Fold these 2 entries.
Entry 1:
Amino acid sequence: MLNIKAVRANPDFYRRGMEKRGLPSRVIDEVLELDARKRSMMKEIQDLRHVRNTVAEKVAAAKKRGEKADELLAQMAEVNRKIEENERKLREIDEKLLGLLVKLPNPPHDSVPDGDSEEDNAVVREWGEPRKEDWMKDHVDILESLGLADLETAASVAGARFYYLFEDLVLLNWALALYGLEFLRKKGFKLVQPPYMLTRKIMEGVVSFQDFEDMLYKVEGEDLYLIGTAEHPLAGLHAGKILDGRILPLRYAGVSPCFRKEAGAHGKDTKGIFRVHQFEKVEQFSFTKPSQSWDEHEFLISNAEEIYRNLGLPYRVVNICVGELGPVAAKKYDLEVWMPAQRKYRELVSCSNCTDYQAVGLEIRYREAPHVEETEFVHTLNSTALATERTIVAILENYQRRDGSVEIPAVLQPYLHGISVLKPAGR
RNA sequence: GCCGGGGUGGCGGAGCGGACAACGCGCAGGCCUUGAGAGCCUGUGGCCCUUCUGGGCCGCGUGGGUUCAAAUCCCACCCCCGGCGCCA
């Protein structure tokens, strides 16, 4: 959610941000007005509580002397009534204010392109030679001829967008995860196996309101949601803590299954394993000082690029336009890999700087050094390192040969115990 | 899931209806020292108001309740430890 102190300190920055998002800048003035009312009400309540405390002390003193304190008690009743009334008013104001702060989006970075569709995304970099031979098949056909997956049975036991993988594809999937973890470990990231379910309180700090409906699975009868990505539990790792600024940036590499409803994606990528309800992913997550986060954003996307170069998959990096940018991120790069059969670049990596938006909701702060008085919210960033099932799709399509076999990228072979080629069933 | 014990600052640990949440460790600053250490002094949860100096409120797992007054009493929930049960 929005950082109220920052809004107060720099309202024009937030007015501009809302306008870039297509919202009227007056929403910020509503926020400021509610904030002012809230604080003056708090002051009033605090003053009344001060009266209560001093009168209570007098009552104690009187009782100790064995005197009656009827007048004091009557005064106390009146003060308490007034406090209760004001507390009710404060709750009302606070709910309105919080409702706005949670609903309003993170102001986008100046470099975020305007526009509201995919065509408005700005291509930042391209790498590799896209293959465009006419004979190339899509991953669904390749999976079928390899005989290493069963999508039909998965649909009958679990529904659409599920899959069974078999044999070499199982190994390939874990090889990708292991390769991603090893890559990040060498870069100094701390490896994390996180919880796969989180409470509502944590989820509220991490995702937008809309995600609860469109993305997250709720566990029936429990205050728990299945994670949509390791980003969610990693963000919660330091919830409620004040970090020592000297240890920032803090970098984590999480690996986990990811569960997504994909509501609102009807008709898109209905076949195959590109868009599914459940997949594995290695995720980068950083906690930084505000002054570090834009460099960190470039660092995270550069790691993802290095991974896809090492895998030999042609890609481009795009700067996502404001209309496609979720409310939580201030800027987002996607890394899109070339898919020969579709003749399109498709998203495999998403790399976001959420600035202080998640940190405010989760109350993750830092101070420059121990015993420095001021605290400030950290910035959080997340980026895919390697989404394994989507990467399998990319490998199948880009590494396919005329005879129907599929070569395995060299960097994965140390994890595959001698498997270097996938061959069509019965050959 | 059941029975018992417990959740207090970064950590250990007192207070168990009314006076500053004692004391210790750790950490930071200062004095001392050629330097380090020891020793001594000071500080070390959050928020609000006002300013640069103070004042106030909140805070003892979370949320309610009782009371003039709750860390302290009552209720519900969460978590931790031990035992029993179940279990990959």
Entry 2:
Amino acid sequence: MSQTQMMKGIIDGCLLAIIAKKECYGYEMAESLSEYGFDTISEGTIYPLLMRMQREGLVTSVLRNSTAGPKRKYYSLTSEGKQELTEFQTRWFQLEKCVNAVIKEGI
Amino acid sequence: MSQTQMMKGIIDGCLLAIIAKKECYGYEMAESLSEYGFDTISEGTIYPLLMRMQREGLVTSVLRNSTAGPKRKYYSLTSEGKQELTEFQTRWFQLEKCVNAVIKEGI
DNA sequence: TCTCACTATCTTGTATTACAAGGTATATAT
DNA sequence: ATATATACCTTGTAATACAAGATAGTGAGA
């Protein structure tokens, strides 16, 4: 069992939460997740997720010039994305409650 | 994004926690997880996980007669299993902290 | 008796996931 | 020139959770 496996399905929601705070690009999100305390999350994980969420209509993107490298693809939430974030938060709090119940209490 | 995806990698640890409380068999663990508030977790999920964890030396099993159906395969934690449970708890609390930070706070 | 419901385990096939590894390309500093 | 940091993307792989279904024992009621 690895930290990796425990992450499954949760990174998506965290990316939505990060984008909700401010318009943001993939490379920046990877750094942001590290600052929040996550183990380094590969760009090979993040970029496909962003592309899938765009395909699903949860986010939109625009290219903007950077002063320090190639163009950045900035993502924003759509209204569907905002709704999905809300639903993710609900699922997360539910999961948190259940796992803590199993871990901490006796039957 | 589904509840399903968010579960990935977490069920293992919850099973270890349930077995730690008392010797337990697969079918019973499925019911137990429901009582803890989890959405129904398929037996097609649980049995392969138990078999994998046995293969990895985290649990052992014994067959015992049942008064109400076929024999039950009761699982117990090995010392490796106990250690893995401890490590799972550490990883879980870390994950919990990080996800809540992303969801709740601004940068 | 026979059939239904419940108990209990396991297998097969599928979609999805996270990632390592590597490729491509731009900008700045040395 | 070349190195470093920035920035995006693709390919191939191992693992995951599950739906669906196979198999089988037990007990209750028609």
